[in-house]
Amino acid sequence: MDEKVIIVEGGADRKRLVRILAEPVTIICTNGTISPYRLEELLAPFEEQELFVFVDADEDGEKIRVLFKREYPDAIHLYTEKTYREVETTPDKVLASILLGAEFKIRPEFLT
């Protein structure tokens, strides 16, 4: 089983990260804002794993972060630059460097 879990907002975010990652990582989509109950339900199977929150730099992303900080204070938050606003529109090399900074293994073609 994967040791790391990344929470993203949507399927497009997941696809972008899967292309860049060079290790098996569980990526869960919240599909936008989410209730505390639904979040707990979604993450119950992953309680023992390292949680990363990688959501957009916008109002909805911020709501999700606030919820995570309250419900899962140990989760590690990854941030895209405000200039790009969304994980989906962040350039691959920038995503790769953010993930690398969090000690994820990255496919070599994204490191050049």
From TrEMBL:
UniProt-listed SMART domains: TOPRIM
Entry coiled-coil feature ranges: none
Location of the Toprim domain: 3-91
InterPro entries found in the cross-reference section: TOPRIM_dom
Protein name as annotated: Toprim domain-containing protein
UniProt source species: Sporosarcina soli
